[in-house]
From TrEMBL:
Enzyme class: transferase
Top-level taxon: Bacteria
Name of the protein in its database record: GNAT family N-acetyltransferase
UniProt-listed Enzyme Commission number(s): 2.3.-.-
Keyword Transport carried by entry: no
Length: 145
């Protein structure tokens, strides 16, 4: 594994660079101003650099006691497969350890990865999505008869 520098401060990150990381990870188009909002409103953040390059990021929304939600974990393609994504999630789990429950949603097919990190599937999760038809199309949500 590479020699990485870790930070938990949004102030240490260029938002344009963070936006590029999400595009190439690939986790979609996340404009810098939107990232400023979601990371700024997250209780825990995690950023990873290899030299001068941002190669990993993640965040957790949390209320301080009951519930934390891990989101937006991204790893640069050149650094994937080396355990960096797992390390980011482990750090976020450690930061949120005093919460009663820690949640995340997993893209279809990634469940085995998250199981190795201690996550179990939920039977009771429900969601309201901004674009439910697309979420159904890509397998994040399902419509029941």
């Amino acid at each position: 594994m590479g020699n990485y520098a870790w930070s938990h401060r949004l102030e240490d990150v260029d938002l344009e660079e963070l936006s590029r990381l999400y595009r190439i990870a690939p986790l979609g188009d996340k404009p810098p101003e939107r990232l400023a909002t979601v990371f700024g409103n997250s209780r825990f953040t995690c950023f990873v650099r290899a030299g001068d390059t941002l190669v990993g990021a993640g965040r957790a929304l949390a209320d301080g006691a009951d519930c934390a939600y891990i989101a937006d974990v991204a790893v640069h393609p050149d650094h994937q497969g080396q355990g960096l994504g797992s390390d980011i999630i482990r750090r976020l789990l450690e930061l949120a350890r005093d919460h009663k429950k820690i949640l995340l949603y997993a893209s279809p097919g990634t469940e085995p990865f998250y199981r190795k990190l201690g996550f179990l599937p939920m039977n009771t999760a429900m969601a309201v999505w901004a674009d439910p038809d697309r979420a159904v199309d890509i397998g994040l949500l399902r419509r029941e008869p």
